[in-house]
Write a structure and sequence with these properties.
- The chain folds into 2 domains: 134 residues, Up-down Bundle (Four Helix Bundle (Hemerythrin (Met), subunit A)), CATH 1.20.120; 230 residues, Translation initiation factor eif-2b, domain 2 (Rossmann fold).
- It is globular, with a radius of gyration of 20 Å.
- By secondary structure, it is an alpha/beta fold.
- It is built from 12 helices and 18 strands.
- The longest helix is centred in the middle third of the chain and has 40 residues.
- A 7-stranded mixed β-sheet has the order 8-7-6-9-12-17-18. Strands 13-10-11-16 form a 4-stranded mixed β-sheet, covered by helices on one side.
- Strand 14 and strand 15 form a beta hairpin.
- 39% of the residues lie in helices and 18% in strands.
- The structure holds 5-S-methyl-1-O-phosphono-5-thio-D-ribulose (MRU).
- 5-S-methyl-1-O-phosphono-5-thio-D-ribulose binds next to helix 2 and strand 11.
- The site of 5-S-methyl-1-O-phosphono-5-thio-D-ribulose (MRU) has 17 residues, from helix 2 and strand 11.
């Protein structure tokens, strides 16, 4: 997608030195558009844990580049497999909810394992990371095309009037390599002249909505309005939301969806107000081994200080952090929640649109039928 008219993806290899991975450092957006160079697997671990990169598909790609850096910097006098197992375990512990991390690490380790010598292992790890990026980009493009069909139809029913779409967190290109999942259909619709406006949940405590979604929609010229997280229900009751589209960090084989905390409450409001609630996801986000999201999906618990403090730009143009709660109060910070499949109107995937249930998902991905326990 474009930033100030120039095309960017979220992660890439330095063209002058392919031992360096470059990321857009999302911690400083929307105030500073800066890059960070990453040279070691430990630096990649920190970038994922501290959310310099975030969003399920991007976390997966970043982890694959982490494995590449681990191979590149390995001590070749010692057992490589053992070193990679340690690196993989560390990367995996950085963010537990998004299944993309596990999928990407498995894919990369297998690619490396199949090669006979050290040099070819380096090349295999690099190719695996680049392949994950290529596939994610293509999947997001297809999600955009598939979701566009839904938006077109809703716009037709509304007689071409402005379509109001509510989203939570950031499931745009910043969360992926390019295009995004939930936002890809929005960009495709906007680019084709369909009138769309996005209600952007601010998404406390990290504010991915007000900081990232608002920024990337603005860069692309999509009309949008940032709202406090608790506003969605009121807007829905007053006919101001036509549809909800969110992303996913892990979708179970029966269609339960883990996404940024607060997504579940939006799904409840949408159901109560007869508003379609769509989840856009690449199949890299499906956990075919799980069939009960609430019982099985690990929910990341982050530092309570993310709730106790908030960061932003001061009137003096400094990025500052201020405390929000009494020094004697405790805070709690669950990063995700699970929306049960029954509240999801449909899943928008790269293969097409399907109901959020085991049968429809396995019809769309017949090759995974045997994986469903
Ligand atoms: O904590 P984050 O910012 O990594 O959470 C991201 C989300 O919850 C996104 O909605 C999700 O990863 C969808 S990805 C396109």
């Amino acid at each position: 997608m474009n930033v100030n008219g120039k095309h960017y993806e979220t992660i890439w290899l330095d063209p002058a030195n392919d031992r360096v991975v470059v990321i857009i450092d999302q911690r400083y957006l929307p105030f500073r558009f800066t890059f960070k160079e990453i040279r070691t697997v430990d630096e990649m671990f920190n970038a994922i844990r501290d959310m310099a990169v975030r969003g399920a598909p991007l976390i997966g790609a970043a982890a694959a580049f982490g494995i590449y850096l681990a191979v590149l910097n390995a001590d070749i006098t010692q057992n490589l497999d053992k070193q990679l197992q340690i690196s993989a375990g560390k990367l995996l512990s950085s963010r537990p909810t998004a299944i993309n991390l596990q999928h990407a690490i498995d894919f990369s380790l297998e690619a490396v394992h199949n090669e006979p010598d050290y040099q070819s292992k380096i090349l295999a790890a690099k190719s695996a990371a680049l392949e994950i990026c290529r596939v994610d980009k293509e999947n997001c493009r297809r999600i955009g095309e598939n979701g566009l069909g839904i938006i077109k139809e809703m716009s037709r029913i509304k007689g071409g009037e402005m379509l109001n779409i509510l989203t939570h967190c950031n499931a745009g290109w910043l969360a992926c390599i390019d295009y995004g999942t939930a936002l890809a259909p929005v960009y495709f619709a906007h680019d084709r002249g369909i009138k769309v406006h996005v209600w952007v949940d601010e998404t406390r405590p990290r504010n991915q909505g007000s900081r990232l979604t608002a920024w990337e929609l603005g860069q692309h010229g999509v009309p949008h309005t940032v709202i406090p997280d608790n506003t969605g229900g009121h807007l829905m009751q007053h006919g101001l939301v036509d549809m909800v589209i969110v992303g996913s960090d892990r979708t179970t084989a029966n269609g339960d969806v883990a996404n940024k905390v607060g997504t579940y409450l939006k799904a409840l409001s949408a159901m109560d107000n007869n508003i379609p609630f769509y989840v856009a996801l690449s199949s890299s986000t499906i956990d075919w081994d799980m069939t009960d999201g609430i019982a099985q999906i690990p929910i990341e618990e982050r530092d309570p200080d993310e709730v106790a403090y908030i960061g932003g730009l001061s009137t003096k143009q400094h990025i500052e952090r201020v405390r929000l709660i009494p020094v004697t109060s405790h805070a709690m910070n669950f990063a995700f929640d699970v929306t049960p499949a029954r509240l999801v109107t449909a899943l928008i995937t790269e293969r097409g649109i399907c109901k959020a249930n085991r049968q429809s998902l396995s019809e769309l991905f017949p090759e995974r039928q045997s994986d469903i326990t």
